[in-house]
Design goal:
The structure holds 2 protein chains of 2 kinds.
Chain A lengths: L3 E3 L9 H27 L23 H8 L7 E4 L4 H6 L4 H8 L23 E3 L7 H13 L6 E6 L6 H12 L4 E7 L2 E2 L2 E2 L20 E4 L4 H16 L5 E6 L26 H11 L5 H24 L15
Parallel strand pairs in A: 1-8, 2-3, 2-4, 4-5, 5-9, 8-9
Antiparallel strand pairs in A: 6-7
Helix pairs in contact in A: 1-2, 1-8, 1-9, 2-7, 4-9
Chain B lengths: L1 E2 L8 E3 H15 L3 E5 L15 H5 L4 E3 L4 H13 L3 E8 L7 H8 L2 H4 L9 E6 L14 H6 L4 E3 L4 H13 L4 E6 L15 E3 L5 E2 L6 E4 L4 E5 L2 H14 L5 E5 L2 E3 L3 H11 L2 E8 L4 H10 L11 E5 L8 H7 L3 H12 L1
Parallel strand pairs in B: 3-4, 3-5, 5-6, 6-8, 7-8, 12-13, 12-15, 15-16
Antiparallel strand pairs in B: 1-10, 2-9, 7-14, 11-13
The chains are: A alpha/beta, B alpha/beta.
The structure holds thiamine diphosphate.
Chain lengths: 337, 342
């Protein structure tokens, strides 16, 4: 069995409302990442000191990967769980996380999701059942547990587990696929193939070209979506989510996506031969053009979406900056419940 | 401690049955509790940690897993964050290497990283300890490693009643608890055992609070502070020395996290002489921590330099003669007590 490879958009055009929703979600996510990029680099100088500034530490931004999050999360409600990675913002945003609390956490403030204890790789949000892990592939097993709880309670809630293609070579990835299939857990496994695991190209790390083929080894459907096409992601995720909600068990979707920027901020990407061409593959202008052509979007619609996104994001940044820095005297709090 | 049954009980159980009784009682009371691990179903746990539970609760709550410790311990973490109360069994503590990430980076940190917004109410049960020639990969205690890593409580019962009461407390705790049972305290019919591994165990609801040491034997001349199977050895030594008129106190820590430093201080304040016995490795572990608990606060309490009896910093050997030279057995404990007595 070889996994299906979806390389052309669905023939039946999606409803205009759905298409607009996908576009809006991608723009909100991109607008957010651009704002974090700006804030992150605003005060790292002179030179680049990773520990300096209002947003210190490693910063893995998701620009270019919005089609994956938008296409998958369009099928979810905030009752469904998402476990994401070290690069979590696009999934958090598309899953409906409160941007104020999320941003305050990234700024390390008391109104953040983790009151400044977590940071950008450790966003835990009970309101949207969202979590992430900075340890590659280790976000998969907890997704099984959320799915297990949903299944036990007789609900049709599901869990979505996200990793990069680099993570597909980790033991936790394979243990999780087997266990989820064995117990028919309502999980959708999503692999974001952005060609690179930091500086290691997927062909230098992975024995087969298509991680969706690995699904067959665990007796579950696998689909690979080419072209970073949000509507193809939406279609594949729709099938996988429906299967999970119906109690038929897990599926695996790999999306060939794009890392528009560096692995993390400060990455000069000297290892990346295709660097010069990367911007022309940006999925958002491409989708915008397609929607204009289809008559779903016009100048007014585009600026409305962008202005709304920008206002929302800037409000979140303001909220974060206004939130107090945690009091050092509270450093011992929250170790135990 | 709550005890709803009438006092003066005489019913005796071995440690494994006491542990299982607590699990069964908590499972009856709370449908969110379930137990998963390798060979915990029909086999009843390789070290009898789940004997009979499958019959009562069925395979949906007593769950045999694939040999995927990262997968199923991580599953427990996720289920706990969604409000269930999983008990996941790591067959031997020695196997922590294949799944430690889910334990210390996920189970133990999510509550902190979430600023207290997400709880992880789960229990990780695991068998520890040597003494039966199982070699370097199946004989370790390793509680010092778990205790070193913040965010998980670590309980290590030595006596049947505590095995029950601490298990009930662990399941009810809103924080993750690592429950480490030494194979040698379980009372298994196929392993040498101390007669103390069968003892009176209260029936009904019985909870022992986590973080409180127990004075296993009162004494005034020297304190042996220890945990798990070594409590049994220490009591044997104290009984023997009593015949010489020596009064040795034995303090059973019962948990390493939280560590009952007050109880250690109180005992050493009384005796002025401290022997720490630990079946874990000597350096960077429990024995040093216990000594520091006194030294940090009031080093003047020591009337003699404290002694540590632990596994010297070597892997646990296989051959019986070598293993027993490495483990903190009676002869080494007795010698250390005589040293502090001067
Ligand atoms: C277990 C583990 N090993 C290594 C790392 C360091 N690391 C962080 S991100 C990364 C690359 C991950 O690549 P991929 O899974 O493809 O995700 P991407 O960064 O491309 O989104 C590595 C090696 C880690 N965080 N965890």
């Amino acid at each position: 069995m070889t996994a299906d490879v979806i390389s052309s958009p669905a023939t039946d055009a999606l409803e205009a409302g759905v298409r607009r929703g996908l576009y809006d979600a991608m723009v909100l996510s991109r607008t957010y990442e651009e704002a974090i990029l700006r804030e992150y680099h605003a005060d790292k100088g002179p030179g680049f000191d990773i520990g300096k500034g209002l947003v210190p530490g490693e910063m893995h931004l998701s620009a270019g990967q919005e089609p994956v999050a938008a296409g998958v999360c369009a099928h979810l409600t905030t009752d469904d769980a998402v476990t994401a990675t070290h690069r979590p913002h696009h999934f958090a945003i598309c899953h409906g996380m409160d941007l104020d609390k999320m941003t305050a956490e990234i700024f390390g403030r008391v109104d953040g999701l983790g009151r400044g204890r977590g940071g950008h790789m450790h966003l835990f949000d009970p309101a949207t059942h969202f979590s992430c892990s900075g340890i590659i592939a280790e976000g998969y097993p907890p997704a099984l547990g959320a799915a297990f709880a949903f299944q036990r309670r007789g609900t049709d809630r599901i869990a979505v587990a996200v990793t990069g293609e680099g993570a597909a070579n980790q033991g936790a990835f394979h243990e999780s696929l087997n266990l989820a299939a064995l117990w028919k857990l309502p999980v959708v496994f999503v692999v974001e193939d952005n060609d690179w695991a930091i500086s290691v190209a997927r062909d230098d790390s992975t024995a087969i070209p298509n991680n969706a083929d690995r699904a067959a080894a665990y007796g579950m459907p696998g689909e690979r979506v080419e072209d970073n096409d949000v509507e193809a992601v939406y279609a594949a995720a729709g099938r996988a989510v429906a299967r999970a909600r119906a109690g038929d068990g897990p599926s695996l979707i790999e999306v060939h996506t794009l890392r528009l920027w560096g692995h993390f901020e400060g990455d000069a990407q000297g290892y990346r031969p295709e660097l010069a061409e990367v911007p022309e593959h940006d999925p958002i202008p491409r989708y915008e053009a397609a929607l204009r052509e289809a008559g779903v979007l016009d100048d007014g619609g585009v600026s409305e979406t962008k202005e709304r996104a920008s206002a929302r994001v800037e409000a979140a940044i303001e909220f974060a900056k206004a939130s107090p820095v945690p009091d050092p005297s509270t450093v011992l709090d929250y170790v135990f419940a | 401690m709550t005890m709803t049954e009438t006092p003066a009980q005489t019913r005796r159980l071995n440690t494994s049955k006491a542990m299982v009784e607590a699990i069964a009682q908590e499972m009856r009371a709370n449908p969110e509790v379930f137990y998963l691990g390798e060979d915990v179903g029909a086999y009843g746990g390789i070290f009898s940690s789940t004997t009979g539970l499958l019959d009562e609760f069925g395979p949906s709550r007593i769950i045999d897993t694939p040999i995927s410790e990262t997968g199923f311990i991580g599953l427990a973490v996720g289920a706990a964050t969604e409000g269930m109360r999983p008990i996941a069994e790591l067959m031997f503590a020695d196997f922590m290497g294949v799944c430690l990430d889910q334990i210390y980076n996920h189970m133990a940190k999510i509550h902190f990283e979430s600023g207290g917004n997400v709880k992880v109410p789960m229990v990780l049960t695991t068998a520890t300890g040597g003494g039966y020639s199982d070699g370097a990969q199946h004989s370790q205690c390793l509680w010092g490693m778990f205790a070193h890593l913040p965010g998980m409580k670590v309980v290590v019962p030595s006596m049947p009643a505590d095995a029950k009461g601490l298990m009930a407390a662990a399941i009810r705790d809103d924080s993750p608890v690592v429950y480490m049972f030494h194979k040698g305290v379980m009372g298994l019919p196929w392993m040498a055992k101390n007669p103390r591994t069968t003892d009176v165990v209260p029936e009904g609801d019985y909870v022992v609070p986590i973080g409180k040491a127990a004075v296993a034997r009162e004494g005034t001349d020297a304190s042996i502070v220890t945990i798990s199977l070594s409590v049994h050895h220490a009591l044997d030594v104290a009984e023997k020395l009593a015949e010489e008129g020596l009064s040795i106190e034995v303090l059973d820590l019962r948990s390493l996290v939280p560590l009952d430093r007050e109880a250690v201080l109180a005992s050493v304040a009384k005796t002025g002489r401290l022997v720490v016995v630990d079946e874990d490795y000597h350096s960077f572990g429990m024995s040093g921590e216990v000594v520091a608990s006194v030294a940090d606060v009031d080093p003047g309490l020591f009337r003699a330099p404290p002694q540590r009896v632990a596994v010297p910093d070597i892997p646990i050997p296989y051959a019986h003669a070598l293993e027993y030279a490495a483990l903190p057995r009676h002869d080494r404990i007795e010698a250390a007590v005589r040293t502090v007595l001067g």
